[in-house]
Every structure is written in structure tokens, then in C-alpha cells.
Amino acid sequence: MRERLSAILSARAFTVVAALVLIVGVVAFATVRLGGDGEAESAAPDTTTAPAPDDFNPTVTEPALSPVTSEARVAAGEFILAAAGREDLPKAWKLTHPELRAQCGCSYKEWLTGNIPVQYYPTGNLDGAAFAVDESSPRRVVLEVVLTAKAGEDVPPQSFFIGLKAVGKGTKLSWLVDYWAPSGSPPVPQSG
Questions:
Q1: Any alpha helices (H) in the chain, and if so which ranges?
Q2: Element (H or E) spanning 137, and its range?
Q3: Rounded to whole angstroms, how far apart are CA atoms 149 and 14?
Q4: How far is the C-alpha of 159 from the C-alpha of 138, rounded, in Å?
Q5: Which fold has domain 70-182?
């Protein structure tokens, strides 16, 4: 009986010591990597990379976004109502870039049935749409838009990505939608 009790106590003591060693190791790692005094990092210089040129700027910057033109925003808004809301499918066809039409693989007549590669969102009782710029260059814009129904409607807000490309030049320039998809993951149905 004493041998068994001794074995159990030894096993518990070993477990406690192992846990303490693990905790000390995690704390040491976190201290060195996430905000220590830097001595451990500077103690061994990194010899795996070539020396940086004299004009090397280690500052990482995000590429500057071009301003989104009012024409691109208007085209996005019109597309949302015409295509996502199915309010004006002939207009939606005109606002759609050939790349998005190719996803449909349908004729103009088939497009008018509403069976299109644009997820439906009821816009009849739309309270608002908020845009955030995800990508922007002089001839390409990607916006994230959150559509919200009026209070009391049984339609949850939903977020979409809409991509637009500029076609033409000068006074003939227009913006056409080449991408439309919900952002985030779809809701998982509850079982039962």
C-alpha cells in the first residue's frame, strides 16, 4: 500500500514540476518575443539575410488608396438596387461588367428572369447602405457595403463585397460591376 501511495505522490510531483517548467518556458518565450528588453534577440545576429542597402527603409507602409469617385459610388448604389434587389434587371445588365456576365453564362433574356450570379437582398424596405473602401486604384474599386432594412422588418443586415472596373476613357469612362459576393461566412443553421 505504501509503495502505491509513494508512486501516486511521485507521479503528481512529477506532473507539478513539468507544469512549472512549461509555464516558466512560456513566460520566458513571451518575454523575449513579445516585448522583452531585446537582449536575447540582439545577442545572436541574423546571418541568413544579406545586409540591407544604405537607402533601405524598414518602415512598412500600406499602399495608398486612390479616392473613390462619385461615379463609382453611384454605379455601386444603382447596381445594388437594380441587381441585388431585382428592381431593374435591364439596368442591372447595363451596369454589369462582361466578366460577371460570363459567370452567369446566360443570355440577356435569361438574365431578365432574375436567375443571375448576384445574391438577392430585398431593397424595397432598405433603410441604408454603408460603404467602406477595401481596395481602390484609378481603374479598380472594391467596396464592402452593409445593407440594412428599416426597423421592424424581418431582414437582418448583411455585408457584401462589390467590385467595379472602369471602362472607357475621358468622357466615355463608366464603372461596371465585375464582382458581388457576401462578405464573411454564411450563417450555420441550427439543428433540431
A1: 2-33, 39-43, 70-79, 89-95, 98-104, 108-111
A2: strand 126-137
A3: 61
A4: 24
A5: Nuclear Transport Factor 2; Chain: A, (3.10.450)
CB atoms within 10 A of CB 91: 14
Backbone φ/ψ region at 132: left (φ over 0), alpha (ψ -120 to 50), beta: beta
- C-alpha distances (whole Å) from 184 to each of 37, 50, 145 are 39, 40, 12
Question: What CA–CA distance (Å, rounded) separates 83 from 116?
Answer: 8
Residue 140 clears pLDDT 50, i.e. is over it: yes
Across the beta sheet with 158-167, the strand order is 126-137, 140-149, 158-167, 174-182
The proportion of the chain whose per-residue pLDDT surpasses 90, expressed as a percent, equals 51
Mean residue pLDDT of the chain comes to 77
Burial 6-40 (b: 16+ CB within 10 A, else e): eeeeeeeeeeeeeeeeeeeeeeeeeeeeeeeeeee
Distance between CA atoms of residues 19 and 27, nearest Å: 12
Instruction: State the cell numbers at 83.
Output: 441587381
Task: Give 41's contacts (C-beta < 8 A, 6+ positions apart).
Answer: 32
Return the half-sphere exposure (C-beta side, CA atoms, 13 A cut-off) of residue 56: 6
